[in-house]
Write a structure and sequence with these properties.
Blueprint: H1 2-7, H2 11-14, H3 17-37, H4 60-70, H5 77-82, H6 100-106, H7 111-121, H8 128-131, H9 139-152
Helix pairs in contact: 4-9, 7-9
Bound molecules: zinc ion.
Domain Reverse transcriptase zinc-binding: 63-108
InterPro entries: RVT-Znf
Protein name: Reverse transcriptase zinc-binding domain-containing protein
């Protein structure tokens, strides 16, 4: 037995460094996904993919806007009020809580920009989850969303 072990190839000789690196990467991605899906935040942020590292090829400021929108952390009045940085959580135009959902989907102040967004993404009913689901990297949707965010001049 010991004589056979000395003559047999080492396991590291049988696995290429590329295959070993890929296996380690897959292991970490699997564990990240498992941790994410079991976290208390997953239910509210199902549209966010923790393992998609594909670059969007946007300006850094546009990427930040998209990711802050998806994580519902844009500095809306509701968010600022929650942090004690604004006197009121209410939208100046609608007098309802100015949340990311309100800004993106219902605020009358941005209806013209929203109509352009609708025309660019097609006849799909707008929903926060669908608009902020970037995993499919639908470039038409992402560019239209960036245009909406930028043209609103809100952030
Ligand atoms: Zn509003």
């Amino acid at each position: 037995m010991a004589k056979h072990a000395i003559g047999s190839p080492l396991a590291v000789d049988l696995i290429s460094p590329e295959d070993a690196a890929k296996a380690i990467d897959n292991h970490f991605k699997h564990n990240q996904l498992l941790e994410w899906t079991q976290s208390k935040y997953h239910a509210n942020f199902r549209h966010i993919s923790p393992v998609n590292l594909t670059p969007l090829y946007l300006k850094r400021s546009q990427e930040v806007l998209l990711l802050r929108l998806a994580s519902r952390s844009l500095p809306t009045k509701a968010q600022l009020f929650k942090c004690g940085l604004d006197d009121s959580p209410l939208c100046a135009s609608c007098n309802t809580n100015e949340t990311c959902d309100h800004f993106l989907l219902t605020c009358a102040q941005f209806e013209a920009q929203r109509e352009i967004l609708r025309n660019k993404v097609g006849p799909t009913p707008l929903s926060f989850g669908w608009l902020c689901y970037y995993k499919d990297l639908n470039s038409k949707k992402i560019k239209a969303l960036v245009e909406f965010l930028v043209s609103s001049h809100r952030f």
